[in-house]
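Issue: ligand-bound run for glutamine - logging full I/O for the record.

Environment: standard queue, default settings, no custom constraints.

Inputs:
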Amino acid sequence: MNLEKMTIKEISALLQSKKITSLELTNFFLTRINKLDSKLLTCISVFEVEARQEAQKADIRISQGESGDLLGIPYLLKDNILVQGLKTTSASKMLENYIAPYDATVVKKLKSVGAVLLGKTNLDEFAHGASTENSAFFTTKNPWDLERVPGGSSGGSASAVSAGLCVFALGSDTGGSIRQPASFCGVSGLKPSYGRVSRYGLMAMTSSTDVIGPLTKSVEDGATVLKIISGQDEFDLTTSSFEVCDYLKNIDKNIKGLKIGVVQEFLKEGLEDGVRDGILSAISVFKKMGAKIIDVSLPSNKYSVPAYYIITPSELSSNLARLDGIRYGHSLKLNPKGKSVENLNEIYLKNRGEGFGAEAKRRIMLGTFALSSGYYDAYYKKAMAVKEKIKQEFKKVFSKVDVILTPTSPHTAFKIGSQINDPLKMYLEDIFLTGPSLAGLPAISIPAGFSKKMPFGLQIIANKFKEDLLLNVSYNFQKETDWHKKTPNL
Ligand code: GLN
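Outputs:
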């Protein structure tokens, strides 16, 4: 039994037929984490005692005849999502010792169906980044090549799923942070529509685009997790009352006649050759299944990264204001350096100066500037107008096609350290990802091939709340291909 390679569906069948217990399974993954995580560095914390307790509870429920897709299934959680009584750091020195006072809604939901939390995964500090190199603690490694980044910001979650350290993981996606690491690590990563999954208990980055979603070994598993974590929540008023459907119900419907839009300009410049070839062969897989391929264009997409990098810093500069060492976060009082402070301003400067890493500081300064009097119209207001234009362009395209297909990233995972001193280059990583985020659309990255031995994904984007269609199209692709079944040698 290769438990590390198995999907939720396969493992759940083993649990239900009593071929394995949740405790055995949990021990298996804890041992695997112990063995492999010293080289992969995916986890910030591992909760051995609590995980075993939860597994035992799940075993009792199973022995009492209860069944459930996630009952007894071990998972990992990105460390910007709160779990009551446990450390949640957002990979920041600022919150190194922060104990969450309540459960995020997604955690509450997963607890109630009996999923077993193994630990919390690494990320770029406060989810700012595309490589996990911005973590205040360590850089996670890509299991396909330990010298390369796993992507980010949900790099810990993606690397862990790819390496089989858990059955599934949750990440968060504000401008690509589930999809890009999924692509770099060869797993399936789903960013739901904005408002589909509650943000309550997710540390806010960009409140207008943040969304939690699953990283899994198959699209089917993504559907299983989404069904459980979705829904309206009184604690997050941006969640939608739009009905949560059974995403598994029509997942295998054939896609004959489905109209797939391919953004021609995305396949031209700046794409790694191997990635382009892979996307073109994915297109022929869809053609073979009877889908109609239609050329479409998203001319304003080139402005999505600039607009995103105004809107994101603006919102996060305000969201992070509470981390001043007085209300929350790293404080001089806890870490006396033997220096006295003269006044309140100095306390703020010292606490925030020591607590935040370079990228968070850069974004706080950018955002504060963009929102400041006299500049607001030129930057923030303009960026919001671009966001609206991008939304309208998607709307127009979706009047002609059912889904849109693009590469997830222009290339495969890059070498650790190779881009960290070039923030603009790092921001351009998000070129195919920020558009759907600004428009609030659901999008998924699924494995589509290898270029120079590294995996890459293709992105499928659907209209708002059309997760069922998105999963249906992606499922059909995985039925025809086996890229998602490839695993790294560790
Ligand atoms: N790379 C993007 C950024 O750095 C994505 C972040 C995210 O989705 N959390 O902002």
